[in-house]
Amino acid sequence: MNNSQSNVNHEPLLQVKGLETAFSIEGKDHNAVDGVSFNVEKGKIVGIVGESGCGKSVMSLSVMNLLPKGIGKIRNGEVLFEGRNLEGLDDKEMNKIRGKDISMIFQEPMTSLNPVFTIGYQLEEVLHNHFKLSKKEATEKVVQLLSAVGISRAERIVDEYPHQLSGGMRQRVMIAMAIACQPKLLIADEPTTALDVTVQAQILELLQDIQKKNDMAIIFITHDLGVVSETCDEVIVMYAGRIVERTDVQRLFNSPKHPYTELLMGAIPRLEEEKDMLATIDGIVPSLTKMPEVGCRFANRCPKAMKECTTVTPKLAKNEEGHEVACLLYETSRPEEEVLR
Amino acid sequence: MLKYTLRRLLGMIPMLLLISIVVFFLALAMPGDPFSGEIDPNNTDPEYIEEMREKLGYNDPIHVQYYDWITGFVQGDFGKSVKYKIPVSDLVAQRLPNTLFLGIMSLVITYCFAFAMGMTAGRRPYTKLDHFIGGFNYMMLAIPSYIAGVFAIYFFSFQLGWFPFNGSVNIAVDEGTLDWWLSKVYHTFLPALVLGAMGTASYTQFLRNDIIDNSNKDFVRTARAKGTPESRIYNHHILRNSVIPLITFLGFDLVSLVNGALITETIFTYPGLGQLFLTSVQASDYPTLMTLTLMFSFIVLIGNLIADILYGIVDPRIRID
């Protein structure tokens, strides 16, 4: 798992640079994603972790250019896919990429499929969007895809409607739809959150299988650190629209640096320990309109908070091991002028 | 579905029987009888009127009258119109095609306008165009048809002379020829427009709201994420979901197709069932009145049945067995 060996002359599959996505609330723009930069290498699984409201989903929608029109917009930054800037592409250009090079699966398999169209029809649509296929070829391909995601009665499922399937089956259909055009990048936005634990494990396994087979990169958005430890190569921890920590998965679990990450890990229930109370993090993520202007955004909930945490904004910086963290507990995170002083 | 339909049809029988009783007694409760207004009491021997009353059974106890009427009715004998002196079935057969023609034409007008406007407004919510369409529709809804009808006749018939203001066809043209059909369309257009414009508002706003509602659904996001063009998302993914609630309206509309438009038909002196209904009430023409009322009730029930069956066809989540 030596993922961070990105050599200089090779280009990452996806580069997000200084992304700022804002939502307009009562006429004022508020950044839901505030200056996020990261790369996704070809064929790697990058996990993005954080509580609800941390800007994980907004970030993924920004990459796909799928922000709700008129409400959300990208204010700053670039999204480069294979070196091409997706920012500013019109819908027509973007539609050639969506579903083909980058595809997405969502949290709610119950509502993510159109209730009035058959499974087969909805799967064929993605093929027709990107390839010229005859009806027969498309149907064959759909049956193939459904079998590939582990649906045993694929021939019959094509004529069924979403409400006739269970949640796990629907998520499999969503995955089949997402991998139909063999995308280079799959964004999975909490794909297992709405599912039973046993089904969760199956879906994760399926995603990993497909990832290996197709050599596809995955951005795995979740708030479940357990899932991250099993699937991801690299982990990005987000809090209130910013990245607070980033490193490879082993290092993160062995030595979490940011207090937020430590607390998140403390909140994972473990089978071997006997506990009456599950550890939680007090408070909630500040809402967009109440975001502090300066300082660490986690300061008000942080047990290790110092005085300066509310006045000095920490920057995300790499230590000598390549472990990135944004917390004033670490010298590297102090803004330059601070270090000089 | 066949079983379901049959069950529903059978269920209508007691319902219709109840309606017939209510309608019958309501009709008898109206002041006067078919003779009042038809016969000048000053010129006619009162004994003769009394004799006729006795002969026609108007002096029988009410339950006997009802029994006489309903037994004839279920055997297909709807009686003879007191006013027009011909069997009611012939009378209805004469008027029904006109009413159907007007109803279908107005429905087509409603649908064309409503879908065009509703889809436009739903795709661009809260824009100037949307507000304009909304304002226009509410204005049309607010104008009662008797005013819209009169104004339409004044402008389009009297001032501009574009359309005729009465009748349903040019009687000089041979029935069944192309000219005859064209003349029918020509005569029906104006009342159909007035009638159609009225229904447009509710359809349009319903469709608009439902399109806006559906455009925020997760499945729309999925469709976008797989690279579906925006026009296809609206005209296909969203519209297909948004027509489902409109089926309820369709059930009502099927009724109005046959019911005829009382006010509009009267203003345009269009010989349809609505007009017939009105004259039969005025003349206490019991046989016609009762036949029409029962027919309308039956059609309301059928309209609802058709709407329910359509739900099952349009929405795969609803199963009818």
What are the key terms here?
heterodimer, A: 341 residues, alpha/beta, Rossmann fold, 8-stranded mixed beta sheet, B: mainly alpha, 74% helix, cell membrane (chain A)
Textual characterization of the structure:
The complex is a heterodimer of chains A (341) and B (321). With 341 residues, chain A is α/β, with parallel strands linked by helices. Chain A folds into two domains: 14-101 and 181-340, P-loop containing nucleotide triphosphate hydrolases (Rossmann fold, 3-Layer(aba) Sandwich); 109-180, no CATH class. Helices cover 30% and strands 22% of the residues of chain A. Chain A is built from eleven helices and twelve strands. Chain A has helices at 56-64, 91-97, 119-130, 135-148, 154-157, 167-179, 197-214, 225-231, 249-254, 259-266, 336-340, and strands at residues 14-25, 28-40, 45-49, 72-81, 84-85, 102-105, 185-189, 217-222, 234-239, 242-248, 317-318, 324-325. In chain A, the strands form two sheets. An eight-stranded mixed β-sheet of chain A has the order 6-7-8-3-9-10-12-11, with helices on both faces. In chain A, strands 2-1-4-5 form a four-stranded antiparallel β-sheet. In chain A, helix 4 (135-148) packs across helix 6 and helix 6 (167-179) packs parallel to helix 7 (197-214). The longest helix of chain A has 18 residues, at 197-214. Chain A is globular and about 65 Å long. Chain A starts with 13 loop residues before the first strand and ends with a helix. Residues 1-8 of chain A have low confidence and may be disordered. Chain B has a domain at 91-256. Chain B contains 13 helices and no strands. Chain B has helices at residues 2-29, 46-56, 62-74, 88-123, 128-142, 145-159, 178-215, 218-225, 230-242, 246-259, 262-267, 273-282, 286-314. The model of chain B has no long low-confidence stretch (mean pLDDT 84). Chain B starts with a helix and ends in a 7-residue tail after the last helix. With 321 residues, chain B is mainly alpha-helical. Chain A binds chain B through residues 64, 66, 68, 91-92, 94-100, 103-104, 106, 108, 111-117, 125-126, 129-130, 161, 163, 174, 177-178, and chain B through 216-219, 221-230, 237, 240-241, 244, 314-317.
